[in-house]
Amino acid sequence: MHPCGICLANFAERRERWRPERCDHRFHLECIITWLDTSNACPFCSRPINRIINATTGECSEAHASVHSLVDGPRFILCYVVYLLVFLPLLIIDVMVVIFGTTYSFVEGYACSLAAALFG
To answer: What's the rounded Cα separation, in Å, for the pair 102 and 16?
Structure first.
């Protein structure tokens, strides 16, 4: 029997082996949950992990049935906030420059004040 693909420790029982829904790699449940804190893909084949299934019984852990989808995680929220604070205003300023012929000194002033507010 192969060891856990993350911690490389042997499985104490067959029931301990869990696998992502779309591939056949085996992990301890704790190991794959810890891995999913940093990535939503299998560490070996990079297939997305949506559900974790017990390799012996076929049961799905309901607590982890939708682990880290891209839209539900805190990374998505952070990216959306950054988009709203940084990129959307810059896009609006670029449109103003094109429509009204405003100079780029206004854009540079906005970018400098935004950088100072964000990074101190």
So the answer is: 64
Short-list 1, 83, 84, 70, CA closest to 39: 70
Under 8 Å between Cβ of 26 and 69: no
- Window from 3-7, 20-24, 61-65 with minimum mean pLDDT: 61-65
42 compared with 91, residue with greater pLDDT: 42
Could you please state the CATH topology (level 3) that the domain comprising 14-64 is classified under.
Answer: Herpes Virus-1 (3.30.40)
Give the position of tokens 């990074």: 119
The pLDDT of residue 62 is above 60: no
| pLDDT (0 to 100) of residue 14 | 65
Q: How far is CA 43 from CA 5, 21, 37, 94, 109, in A?
A: 8, 14, 12, 41, 44
Map out the domains of the chain as residue ranges.
14-64, 74-119
